[in-house]
Amino acid sequence: MIGSTPDTRHPCSALFDSPSRHGFASLAGLGRKPPRRLRPRRATTIRRKRLPCRALRNRHGRIKGSKLIVIGLTGGIASGKSTAARSLAERGAVVIDADKLGHWAYQPDRPAFGQVVAAFGEDVVGANGEIDRRALGGKVFGDQRQLTKLTDIVWPEILALAKEKIAAAGTDGTDILVLEAAVLLEANWQEEVDEVWVVVVEPSVAVRRATARDGVDAAAVQARIDAQLSNAERIAQADAVIDNSGTEAELLAKLDREWQRIKRTPA
């Protein structure tokens, strides 16, 4: 998934700079635990009969009568969420990466840009006229109040961008769309999807994988895990739980079972 070059930059900059590993959605790892608006569901790994969710689609900006099924895919650090998303894309799903939307949300032509500047000051704008994520990171790192202020600006913008893409997919014949978002539950986006799929891995396995993948210290990885939702908290919100503590082949087999199940869901 990611190379093994250690990250020696500002301790918060990685959360803003790389859409593939430490993108904006990784801000959940800085301490919104438990999330402020997380509404508990029954704590079970058994899938609930929640599909199809057609009645919600007008409210969510989707097309009434569309056959589109929207999966919210989430998981913690080194859980294999991105591998799962790629596998689902290979099976034919349209994948929306919330990390990438987080970067687009900062663009000068988006509403969040002006809100971020107003909230955090002109000094967060770099020489190129765009948000300097290192400067912004320095203002929110270790400060829960400032972090909440930032996520309250940017998360709604990310969701607005995602809903634009979901609405478009509802008109072009797409059958299955995956919203890949590390903060799906923290941001309370689970009500915007038809099913929540959670990829979980034992914390010790996550530490081992992340240190090997990213070349970072095990204690730093454990600190990020401790700041995120636990596996149990994610599972309590899940419609499908994919345990990735084994091999990649086992992960893909589990995904295939869920894929075949959801493909059989009546429109």
Task: Kindly describe this structure.
With 267 residues, the protein is an alpha/beta fold. The protein contains ten helices and five strands, in the order αβαβααααββαααβα. A five-stranded parallel β-sheet has the order 2-3-1-4-5, sandwiched between helices. α3 (98-105) packs across α6 and α7 (203-214) crosses α8.
Which regions contain 5 or more consecutive residues with pLDDT less than 50?
1-49, 52-62
Estimated radius of gyration: 18 Å
Strand order of the largest sheet: 2-3-1-4-5
Let me know the largest β-sheet: 5 strands, parallel
How is the quaternary structure best described? single chain
Strand content: 5-15%
Q: Would you tell me the structural class of the helices and strands?
A: alpha/beta
Overall pLDDT level = 81
Q: What's the number of extended β-strand segments?
A: 5
Element string (H = helix, E = strand): HEHEHHHHEEHHHEH
